[in-house]
Amino acid sequence: SAEMVSMFFACAALGLSVDPVVILAGYPAVCLLSLIPITFSGFGLRETLTVSFFSLAQVLPEDSAFDAGVSAGLLVDLLEFVGPAVFGLVALPWLVRQLWRPRRPGA
């Protein structure tokens, strides 16, 4: 899914050497648990679960798992929420012009 790909690229961007198989095997559980309606859109919960995932999978030393997990989780949030929102705001004027443009009869 897109979240696993985003997590892989977030880890690569942060310089973390995480095996893609580990992400594909374990990160879906993080995504599923972040759907529990505790926080708004899973913010905060996803980062905490990512820290736990990195610790349990032992992909990073325990002292750096917290920083890496929070950073990777926030970067995934940035890729999946902020990026599309900015794109939508940039495309909004064009979309409004297209919707309010007069249509020719028969076209």
Sum up the structure in keywords:
single chain, mainly alpha, 107 residues, elongated, 73% helix
Task: Explain this structure.
- The chain is mostly helical.
- The protein is built from four helices and no strands.
- Helix 1 crosses helix 2.
- The chain is elongated, with a radius of gyration of 19 Å.
- The termini are far apart.
- The mean pLDDT is 83.
The value of Rg in angstroms is 19 Å
Helix content: over 70%
Based on secondary structure, the structural category is mainly alpha
Strand content: under 5%
The N- to C-terminal Cα distance equals: 39 Å
Helix and strand run: HHHH
Q: Quick check: average pLDDT?
A: 83
Concise overview:
The protein is mostly helical. Helix content is 73%, strand content 0%.
Topology of helices and strands:
Blueprint: H1 2-13, H2 20-33, H3 45-57, H4 62-100
